């Protein structure tokens, strides 16, 4: 392809996807607090944090995101919606995931290992388009997760690895910090019931 054959492609507007992601996170917050207001679910642990990591696709790309974790006393699972932006020079890439995490009952002091499964929606848009190729769209996938949260007094750092299964199937590893939003001393910084 010569320079004369290259056609100008205007930048893709991704603002509508950001509005959709924000709406979904607000919906999850409202749903969580509505469920939590029921007497049987009246004692939730809410942790919010920032995360970062590396995704291994065709190349190694850094990512940043937001991590929300909701624990309820009557459930052994943690609801974990996340949003990630992946820094790739050739593609605009957003990932929205909802996961169910299970804390492994190993009894380690200040360390809470977990495994999980979930689904994700990945929105991608190539910065340069090529004919006869899918240049933008959304893909569904499944997440397989393993990680550990470290129970410190003010914050709870965590590390985890995620294998996505689907059409776009990167392997990623990352870390982050969780902060308690509920201020309840009955929960640890990682979100487990205080022993």
Please give a structural write-up.
- The chain has a single domain (15-180), classed as Porin, CATH 2.40.160.20.
- It is 11% helix and 52% strand.
- The chain contains one helix and eight strands.
- Strand 2 (60-71) and strand 3 (77-88) form a beta hairpin.
Quickly count the helices: 1
Please give the CATH architecture: Beta Barrel
Distance between the termini: 66 Å
Strand element count:
8
Mean pLDDT: 80
Order of helices and strands: HEEEEEEEE
Query: Oligomerization state of this entry?
Result: single chain
Percentage of residues assigned to helices? 10-25%
User: Order of strands side by side in the largest beta sheet?
Assistant: 1-2-3-4-5-6-7-8
What does the radius of gyration come to? Answer: 19 Å
Class computed from helices, strands and strand pairing: mainly beta
Proportion of beta-strand residues: over 45%
CA-based shape: elongated
Please give the domain count: 1
Q: What is the highest CATH level, the class?
A: Mainly Beta
Low-confidence stretches: 1-12
What about the largest sheet?
A: 8 strands, antiparallel, barrel
Which fold does the CATH topology refer to? Porin
Record keyword descriptors for this entry.
1 helix; 11% helix; eight-stranded antiparallel beta barrel; Porin; disordered N terminus; 195 residues; mainly beta; 8 strands
């Amino acid at each position: 392809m010569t320079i004369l054959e290259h056609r100008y492609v205007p930048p893709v507007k991704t603002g509508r996807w950001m509005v959709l992601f924000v709406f979904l996170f607000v919906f999850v917050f409202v749903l969580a607090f509505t469920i939590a207001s029921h007497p049987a679910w009246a004692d939730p642990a809410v942790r919010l944090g920032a995360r970062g990591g590396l995704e291994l696709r065709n190349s190694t790309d850094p990512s940043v995101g937001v991590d929300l974790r909701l624990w309820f006393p009557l459930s052994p699972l943690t609801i974990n919606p996340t949003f990630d932006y992946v820094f790739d020079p050739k593609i605009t890439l957003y990932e929205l995931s909802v996961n169910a995490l299970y804390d492994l009952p190993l009894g380690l002091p200040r360390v809470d290992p977990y495994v999980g499964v979930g689904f994700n929606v990945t929105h991608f848009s190539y910065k340069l388009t090529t004919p006869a190729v899918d240049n933008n769209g959304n893909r569904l996938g499944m997440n397989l997760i393993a990680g550990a949260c470290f129970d410190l007094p003010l914050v709870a750092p965590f590390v985890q690895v995620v294998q996505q299964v689907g059409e776009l199937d990167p392997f990623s590893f990352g870390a982050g910090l969780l902060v308690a939003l509920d201020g309840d001393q009955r929960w640890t910084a990682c979100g487990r019931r205080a022993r």
